Amino acid sequence: MARIVGLGGVFYKTSDPKARKDWYVKHLGISPGQGYDGVEMRWRRPDNPDHQEMSLVSFFDADTKYLGEAGQPFMVNFVVEDIEGMVEKLRAEGLTVEDIVDEGYGKFCWTTDPDGVRVEMWEPAGSVPNIGEMPG
Q: Is residue 85's pLDDT more than 60?
């Protein structure tokens, strides 16, 4: 069934991604991400407790285009079950959805909400990897 099953993370622009990561680790006690400027929280779904999931906050340079072209300072990422079904559903509802990209560690697609905020959907492939081990 095509549905959102969790928050994958929040990504936002900052003038100093490393300093922002250090602040979240020091003051909020969130585990540092390995190999990227961000912090992560691992969790398990009640309906599938043997499967590990991850939510993260990731910091991007202020001039990144990855968060979209609308000038928004952040992007939201959701963990999706059945990304193909989700794309079909959203397109049937009249939304523009970018084609699915398979990165090996999961499939991604993007849409934009009415306020211009980019929404990323991620269907992980198998267990959640260490972000620092992801290509790209």
A: yes
